[in-house]
Amino acid sequence: MNQRLNSSWWALRIGLGVAPFLAGLDKFFNLLTNWKLYLNPLALRVIPVDPGTFLHAIGIVEMIVGLAILTRWTRLGAYVASLWLVAIALNLVTMGVFFDVAVRDILLALAAFTLARLTEVRQATATNSSAYKQGLVRASAT
After folding, report:
1. Rounded to a whole number, what is the distance in angstroms from the first to the last CA of the chain?
2. What is the mean pLDDT of residues 51-67?
3. 19: closest CA among 137, 93, 104?
4. Residue 88 contacts by C-beta under 8 Å, 6 or more apart in sequence?
5. Which of 127, 125, 122, 113 is nearest to 16 (CA)?
6. pLDDT tens digits, residue range 84-121?
7. In the 3-class helix/strand/coil scheme, how is the chain assigned residue by residue?
């Protein structure tokens, strides 16, 4: 992969991996914000658990997604993050508040989608390069 694309891939991977992990971790501490403000009242009526418990579950999912992006499951984690961020944005829009955060989350979803696609290109390049090298080794052995 081109070095410029590779550095972009790493920047997206680190940023989109660390941010969800830290946001998920903060669901247990509320240092960044009061996360309960972002819960849709309609969802709270449908979900049969305490809002704090629900946020802890969300936090665990976000930490898992962040770790997936940072480890060997980058592509899968990035696709999940992209869908997750769109769902968060839709939640905020249906609440009629935090439109600025909803727009930001859509942009982050696009970044996560881009990371997933770049990961596919990166993996295909590595596979093709490996197959090419193996072909050269076999050809020189004959």
Report:
1. 30
2. 97
3. 104
4. 38, 102, 105
5. 113
6. 999 999 999 999 999 999 999 999 999 999 999 999 99
7. CCHHHHHHHHHHHHHHHHHHHHHHHHCCCCCCCCHHHHCCHHHHHHCCCCHHHHHHHHHHHHHHHHHHHHCCCHHHHHHHHHHHHHHHHHHHHHHCCCHHHHHHHHHHHHHHHHHHHHHHHHHHHHHHHHHHHHHHHHHHHC
How long, in residues, is the chain?
142
Q: Which residue has the tokens 């081109």?
A: 2
Average pLDDT over residues 43-62: 94
Tokens of 33: 């914000």
- Rounded distance, CA 47 to CA 30, Å? 21
User: Nearest-5° angle of CA 30, CA 17, CA 50?
Assistant: 35
- What is the pLDDT at residue 75? 98
Helix axes 51-70, 74-95, angle to 10 degrees: 150
pLDDT of 137 > 80? The answer is no
